[in-house]
Amino acid sequence: MKNIFKSSLLLLSSICLLAACADDNDSNPTLTMPTTFQLNTPAFSQAVTDLSASSALPFTWSQPDYGGFPVAAQYQMQFSFNQSYTVSVAEAQADETGATKADYVALDQIYNGCSGTVNTSQLAKGLMQIAQWSSDEVPASVTIYARLVADYAGSEIYSNIVPIIVRPYYVELKDADPVLWYLVGDCIADGSWGNNADGVGKTLLPLSPIEGQEYDKATGTGIIGYTGYFPAGGQFKMIQTPGSWDVQLNYSNITKGSELADDLDGDNHNIGIKTAGYYTVKVDTKSDKVTIEEYTGSVKTFDGMAIAGTFNDWGDTAMNPSTTNAENHDWYITQSLDAGAKIKVKQAGSWDFNKGGSFVNLSNGMYVYGVSGGDDLIVEEAGEYLILFNDITGFIRFIKQ
Questions:
Q1: Is the pLDDT of residue 346 over 50?
Q2: Mapped to the 3 state alphabet, what secondary structure does the chain carry?
């Protein structure tokens, strides 16, 4: 379980509060650290639970007895096949040699009370990560063992173990997609500060995986970036989730290159590039650190960009410019494509500039670091795709709609 509290400040403050009140009430409880607590046996444990036929499994438990002291513990569910909790899936994935084998999975969901539901699709994936079944090896039913870990001030204790019987199903295991953040601002895309989910390419521009960087197989965290033209004084920031302003990165997150920008708009700390030009903005999604650096490569400005392929007999279908109030280097289009379709991104009216290559598949599409004159891009799965292209980096992303 990840360290939910990074210091014992909460524990110390609680103890100090007790000491301050001791003279007023000698019956104040004394904080003690228990060794275990009770996970209740759920009613569904008496039958086989089909994980594909339900979305959530309810669990309840008793708060650990910290000596009658009220605490804000946090809880996380763990599951194994043999009551062994030695190596987690996350720990096994961290071993790039593949020699380390997991015997339990800790699900991501964190609970703050004494009840919670387990997402069955996450549980099914976790069981697959432990067992590594092929599609014809998945058992009709299997007994698994659940326990709960409680974390208070960095100290962990474990509940009793409860057996349940489930009917698992096959899950194709893939590495986690690289985590994305999105640029938004008055110098980004149409400059409207719109953050709606349907504004990707129009009002929001995603930062992209960077060629040569490695991304955490379990979490998808790593360094992502965006290269483009920034006008002097234009304001922007990054948001994590389209449609939400809750999680942002701004000037206060810059750890390198802050001298290239100004801290704008008071409490919002919007980033404003001082001198107009081409810059690369990077985000380390593990630490939420931001860097800004000048881009020194050659840049060409295009009047138009298009997609061409088997879907249009290799003619031009014009892409839309993303940036409408400054120099544009980002393009987008939504296009329906058949399975097996071949496609390239090219300069409108010319094949002198064209990008191709081999896709990296994602859970909701694919991407490629476009190669000049590269191979035709081949679409494996039919569907409607939002296609994004940056003509400086050559990065192409297909997002299934």
A1: yes
A2: CCCCCCCCHHHHHHHHHHHHHCCCCCCCCCCCCCCEECECCCHHHHCEEEHHHCCEEEEEECCCCCCCCCCCCEEEEEEECCCCCCCEHHHHHHCCCCCCCCCEEECCCCECCCEEEEEHHHHHHHHHHHHCCCCCCCCCCEEEEEEEEEEECCEEEEECCEEEEEECCCCCCCCCCCCCCEEEECCCCCCCCCCCHHHECCCEEECEECCCCCCCCCCCCCEEEEEEEECCCCEEEEECCCCCCCCEECHHHEEECHHHEEEECHHHCEEEECCCEEEEEEEECCCCEEEEEECCCCCCCCCCEEEEEHHHCCCCEECEECCCCCCCCEEEEEEEECCCCEEEEEECCCCCCEEECCCEEECCEEEEECEECCCCEECCCCEEEEEEEECCCCEEEEEEC
